[in-house]
Hints:
Blueprint: H1 3-16, H2 24-39, H3 52-62, H4 69-83, H5 121-146
Helix pairs in contact: 1-4, 2-3, 2-4
Amino acid sequence: xxxxxxxxxxxxxxxxxxxxxxxxxxxxxxxxxxxxxxxxxxxxxxxxxxxxxxxxxxxxxxxxxxxxxxxxxxxxxxxxxxxxxxxxxxxxxxxxxxxxxxxxxxxxxxxxxxxxxxxxxxxxxxxxxxxxxxxxxxxxxxxxxxxx
Length: 148
């Protein structure tokens, strides 16, 4: 499984699980790692230090500056595994457990092209006459019923 798939599983687990730690430090760690994954490095100006929550969020995210998105995803998953033991990533099956794929090529019934008659000029002419007749009588009948 790709790291992105594992990260998506971790996000859905956090949204649905009630067992995830609700300490401020853990929430701040999840927030900063999520921001690093979604937005990259923090380039926003620092908020006022009087706004304690906004400044703490900004500082936690700023500390991850230079961390790649893939590394931040790994850190997010590792942190979730630390704070919530019920979160488990699916195990990748061993190659020996993967069933053998048949190397037999399926056969398709072969109908020679020569056996199928090609439409001749007479069938084309008949379809053209049929379309013309349908248009003339169908449209004429329609116009006759619509117009007085």
